[in-house]
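Late entry, evening session. Most of the bench is empty. Finally got around to the prediction I had been postponing all week. Sequence below, unchanged from the version circulated by S.P.
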Amino acid sequence: MASLIDRTRIDQIITFVKSLNINSHRLHEMIISENLESIQNFNEALTHSSGNKKINYEKLEFFGDAVLRLAASNFIEENYTHMSVGDRSELRSLIVSDEWLTQLGKKIDVEKFIIKGPKALSDENATDTIIGEATEAVIGALYKCFNSIKEVNLWLDEFWIKDSEAFLKAPYKFNAKSALQEWCQRKGFDLPEYKIMEVSKIHGDPKRFSCEIYINGSKKAYAFGQSHKKAEKNAASILIEQFIAR
């Protein structure tokens, strides 16, 4: 399968791997030797199914999901020794979320290296999803190159150190629905009721769905989102910000 990769593509992958700036002697040796098996792993991770139905990132994305959770668990164990299991679980959910993966993918400019077919290239609404999925596949590819989690943590810990501090300072900004539920429980109120309505049929429309939040039967917030989940999160964020500001 490695023979299917031409010189131009090999150079692209080498450029991408170098740009990750991972301080690993093993990775440096892989780049210098242009190990074809490793290059194939990254090529697969950076190929959308629209670009190649047989060799694409779907399997590595699935694999990368488990690798990501293990690496995040290692990071939390190393840096937040005294954190409770519940708090560890909540922090991990934030630093392995789809949203976080998409943000990471944009930081490393992964989209520039993804092979996509005409259909995916013309679907701007799918861009963020593809960026997040490919980034997760890259994590899987990195592990697969060495059968080791070390290189993954060497890469991701740098991002997690900063992001975890931000999450822990203002967790309600990143998990507004949980924060709102906890607030209601502390106040003795009923749990928030979310009412969703589809207002647009356009896929990817940021105002496709509207969400109203009711507490004890009273409407408290209203927001839009391109999905049910996003609309609920946006409305919860507005409401919890109001409560925090009081």
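Two things to note before I forget:
The chain is about 60% helix and 10% strand.
Strands lie at 193-198, 209-215, 218-225.
Will write this up properly tomorrow.
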